[in-house]
Specification:
about 425 residues; alpha/beta; 2 domains; 14-stranded mixed β-sheet; 16 helices; about 40% helix; globular
């Protein structure tokens, strides 16, 4: 059993070494996130709960990971049976890196999962399901589910497939994530979106399962959420192999994405992988088709690995100077659809957590802090309209970007509160 992926784990481990009292308090914090890799891990967690009952209310997130379908089926079933009703604080279940086969999960497992009423988030990553009916069944098994996340989820059933019954809890879903899933998975997510009122959508674009691939229904997922969607995050494929010579085909492909019907949208976020100079042309068509009068915040952020930060940063700055992207973006943001953007509500930046510790990367004469200054100056010089309105802000780390997002939530919540008090229109 591994106590897993706590972002402050190293700090907590250091605190645990200070004295016995500190060890006692940090011990519980380190057990909020648990990774179960096999049946022995599940048994170890059960033993911990018997020896220290208080841990049952501490565990908030459980990740069930496997590399063979049989192994996963065994310890998913063991987890569901042995811990049913024993983790009252559990809010998120993640299942990753496995392939299910027909009959590998018995019906009793789904029945046991119904006792996890506190779970509001299910995240599937790198999972292959035997049929859409199996996926719908595991979704239905969690009565308190409010967020469903599917990343790199495939289906071994041949496409097209017959319609499976909708999950019983579809109407209560509020957040949906669909990143590079099989077409038959997208079909189910479209139907779920039509039956619910999804407020937050994370959608993966591009790559082998982009809109140009056979059977892709990315725009259908967007349209199914149009009446209720408030926050949209678009994620470009981090494994895309497209190079600069294919930009024209990308722009044509991107015509599939249209946000003109999303009238309740108040925040649009676009995330890019480590090749920003490849994908810039995707942004402008998407933003130009955004017509929501409620839109008050927008961001474009690049996620960069620390070992390539300096190289990519330098390439992106060069591309922006020569390509005129920022000038075109500035023109788009002066249209009436973006009149409600408030101060510092347009965020453009790169981020990678803790990358600023690399002061003098190999092959770059200037420090990364100097690169940040170049980035800020280029943005403001190339976007005089937005800069004059004071709506621009830039970020250079994940922490800065996260703080910007938190501030946007606070601004939106405050605005909704004022509308409620005055009897105005609220989302």
């Amino acid at each position: 059993m591994v106590f897993y992926r706590n972002p402050h784990a190293l700090t907590l481990q250091s605190c645990a070494l200070v004295c016995k009292d500190w060890y006692y308090y940090t011990w519980f914090h380190l057990r909020r996130r648990v990774l179960l890799r096999d049946r022995n891990d599940v048994l170890a967690l059960c033993r911990t709960l018997r020896e220290t009952p208080r841990v049952s209310s501490i565990v908030q997130q459980v990740t069930i990971s496997g590399h063979r379908s049989l192994a996963l089926a065994q310890h998913l079933g063991t987890f569901a049976a042995m811990l049913a009703g024993k983790l009252p604080g559990l809010s998120r279940i993640t299942i990753r890196d496995t392939e299910w086969t027909v009959g590998s999960i018995r019906m009793q497992v789904f029945n046991c999962l119904t006792t996890f009423r506190s779970v509001h988030t299910l995240h599937l990553n790198g999972v292959t399901v035997p049929s859409i009916a199996h996926l719908a069944r595991i979704i239905s098994a969690l009565p308190g589910l409010r967020k469903l996340s599917c990343c790199y989820v495939d289906c071994s059933q041949e496409y097209p497939v017959s319609l499976a019954p909708l999950p019983l809890n579809s109407a209560y879903l509020e957040e949906l994530e669909a990143q590079w899933v099989a077409p038959e998975i997208e079909d189910l997510l479209v139907r779920i979106s039509q039956a619910s009122r999804v407020r937050v959508l994370d959608l993966g674009l591009g790559g082998d399962r982009g809109p140009d691939s056979p059977g892709s229904r990315s725009q259908d997922v967007l349209d199914a959420c149009a009446a209720s969607l408030e926050v949209l995050r678009l994620h470009m494929d981090p494994y895309s192999s497209v190079d600069s010579q294919d930009i024209d085909s990308i722009v044509v492909t991107e015509q599939h994405y249209n946000l003109s019907r999303h009238e309740r949208l108040w925040r649009l976020e676009i995330y890019y992988p480590s090749n920003p100079f490849v994908h810039w042309s995707w942004i402008l068509p998407i933003i130009s088709r955004t017509a929501s009068k409620h839109l008050i915040a927008m961001s474009v952020a690049f996620r960069i690995p620390a070992d390539r930060t300096a190289y990519i940063w330098d390439r992106a700055l060069t591309m922006m100077k020569e390509g005129g992207f920022l000038v075109q973006l500035d023109d788009i943001l002066q249209t009436e659809h973006f009149a409600n953007i408030a101060l510092r509500n347009i965020c453009l930046g790169f981020y990678y957590q803790d990358w600023l510790r690399h002061e003098k990367p190999f092959g770059i004469k200037s420090t990364l802090r100097e690169q940040c200054t170049r980035w800020d100056e280029l943005i403001r010089r190339s976007m005089p309209g937005c800069n004059g309105r004071g709506i621009l802000t830039t970020t250079h780390t994940y922490g800065e970007y996260e703080n910007w997002a938190i501030n946007m939530d606070a601004i939106h919540e405050e605005a909704q509160g004022r509308k409620a008090e005055t009897g105005g229109e609220a989302q």
